[in-house]
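Anyone opening a protein record will find just a pair of labelled lines. With that in mind, the following record should read easily:
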Amino acid sequence: MQLQSGAATNGKEMSDSISRADFYGVPTDVPAAIDLARLHAALEASWDERTAYQGAMREGNPAFGQCYPTARVVQWWFPECEIAAGDVDTGEGMEAHFWCVRRGETIDFTWGQFPSGSKIRKSRLLERDTLNDSPSTIERCQLLLERVLAVLMTVRAQG
């Protein structure tokens, strides 16, 4: 399966005759539909230092450093989502953050990495065709997607 930089997640660019599974090279038995709660659980089960930004980990804070690959995987499942980038004021400094926006709804499974009282100071939607992800970022996103799919397939097989 392939999660490419930029255009790969744009549902409008896919031909009607090509399913998402075919387009990404994902096995056809991958669940076609998923709800946000199941996706959230699969993402959390898939995070580690190999999917975190610069391998960063914080004890008791599994979401730390996971925001960008998480947003990319959410966008993969929900192509109507756009990725937002912003600066978060944690009270101790400013930190970069990424999350998804779908029809005005915020989808942010990694907000918990920030201390209580943190606030987004500025944000913008990213242009999905010009994300310009580095090779290491693509690798982290790809790894997270593969793990999420494996978790979902395991859950599906069990239940």
